[in-house]
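Hi R.,

Here's the chain you asked about this morning:
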Amino acid sequence: MQKKLSIVPFIVLISVSLIALFFPNLPNPTVMAENLKNINTGDTAWIITAAALVLLMTPGLAYFYGGMVNAKNIVSTMLQSVISMAVISVLWIVIGFSLAFGSSQGGFIGDPTTFFMFKGVLEGAPWSLAPTIPLLLFAFYQLKFAIITPALITGAFAERIRFTSYILFICLFSLFIYAPLAHWTWHPEGFLFKMGVLDFAGGTVVHMSAGWAALASVFYLKGRSNVDHKPANIPFVLLGTGLLWFGWFGFNAGSALGANGLAVSAFATTNTASAAAALAWVFFDSIKGKKPSALGACIGAVVGLVAITPAAGFVTISHSIVIGVIASLVSNIVVDWRAKTTLDDTLDVFPCHGVGGIVGMILTGVFAHQSVNAANTTGNGLFYGETALFIVHMKALLIVSAFAFGGSLVLLKITDLISPLRVSEEEEALGLDISQHGESI
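And the predicted structure, written out as tokens:
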């Protein structure tokens, strides 16, 4: 049965290739020249760089996760991140970008035909919120966010998921969870955007969606047969953290969509929050009687990066310290709580990415100020005595959480019906590197 299922992805890819053959979508040179005449070369150069930085985050995530699992699952865990780069890149061209940023259908989803096979993207008018860079660049910058989001989920079900089933799940997740959330939050006609929700670089769209999907997968797949393990390669974790921290500047500073003062401000808040969170995690562990560990410093740094993501372009640099510290402490407490339960979130994706994203979204509603970013028309945060923004964020928190968690459970069930999600006990004991890929370190 599994061998029969393995041929399906190949057939799908060949079918997509045949469709692409008859949809060359040649640009109109006259239209292209008109639409690109006001492009800013400095902004374009920066966003190309930022897009490359964001893509680097996914191999960084592969090292970050790969170093934390058992030695017999390093290759499989890392490949789950890398294969997302390939799968989502093709899916985004075919229909993903249309669903996320195509003509709005009631504020809930984009028209799948708007940019089908990137129709009209090469010569298209710049995106309304990124008027100084080509539409094609905006589309590919957004692609990098779409790539890393499903890859983040992999840490929750590491060491027990079938590879072909994983590919199917991330396709469904990208189309039915990620694309709608991106549309709701970042499209000018999206209903969360119109509510006044502030998500500068993906606290809700990326981290909360991945975090809730991770928790859903933990409930659905249940625990591993043997949960007692130690990280196989701490230097991999250190390397992954460095690549993530470095790439995150493209993630957050790039979300200014131009080489401007706002990008510099987001750059500064990103670095500061991560540094503060790393310190908070290590110091809090020391208070609890633990030795200061490289693993703790790395996890703390990433939690800080997660938490500052929605707030990066809306808060001051000093308040980014507060956000980093609070997020680090809360996630640390949730990690300890999770360890006392039967929930087998292998690499604590929900406590770190999910909870970090939630804390970041809430604190954006607390510390955002319009003097930092004039695009914030909702109002100042709760810290400044205003309530409108905070209330909007609390409503969005409930909506996004319910949608991402409930929707992911449904998609996991659908995936499992088509292709079993769990490997057998024998395959799990052997290790996914050998059982799924015939390779090892």
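Residues 2-25+40-437 form a domain with the Ammonium transporter fold fold (CATH 1.10.3430.10).

Let me know if you need anything else.
M.
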